[in-house]
Amino acid sequence: MEYLNAFLCGGILCAIGQIFIDKTRLTPARILVGYVVAGVFLQAVGVYGPIAEWGGAGATVPLTGFGANLAKGVETAVAEQGWLGIFTGPFTAAAGGVAAAVLFGVIAALLFKPGEKR
């Protein structure tokens, strides 16, 4: 059942993004930023936690999950460090994901020949 929930949750998020691409003049980059901001907002109001519990990886892997992770990092850091946590929390919470993205990007660039399309 976990796989089905993850598939449904991730599929719904992707379908919403595709609708935005097809029906609006928003660029994909703006839609992606909107997903991160939506994740932060939904985590801040307490809605994203139950969605992530139900959807599992279908909710935590997309960019909305990244935004929710940033918001959780701020919440934790503010509780531990006070207002300074607003500035340090997102970096601490997202460091692992960003480091993995950079590492795998470098590995992909070494294995394949990156370049412009012709």
Task: Write structural notes for this entry.
With 118 residues, this protein is an all-alpha fold. The chain has one domain (2-111). The chain is 82% helix and 0% strand. It is built from six helices and no strands. Helix 2 (28-44) crosses helix 5 and helix 5 (63-81) runs antiparallel to helix 6 (85-111). The protein starts with a helix and ends in a 7-residue tail after the last helix.
Describe the SSE topology.
Layout: H1 2-23, H2 28-44, H3 48-55, H4 57-60, H5 63-81, H6 85-111
Helix pairs in contact: 2-5, 5-6
Helix content: over 70%
**DSSP summary, beta strand count:** 0
Oligomer: single chain
Q: Strand count, sense and closure of the main sheet?
A: none
Strand content: under 5%
Whole-number tally of structural domains:
1
pLDDT < 50 runs, ≥5 residues = none
Alpha-carbon Rg, integer: 16 Å
The helix-strand sequence is HHHHHH
Class by alpha and beta content? mainly alpha
Question: What is the count of helical runs?
Answer: 6
Distance from N terminus to C terminus (CA atoms, Å) equals 44 Å
The coarse silhouette is: globular
Mean pLDDT: 90
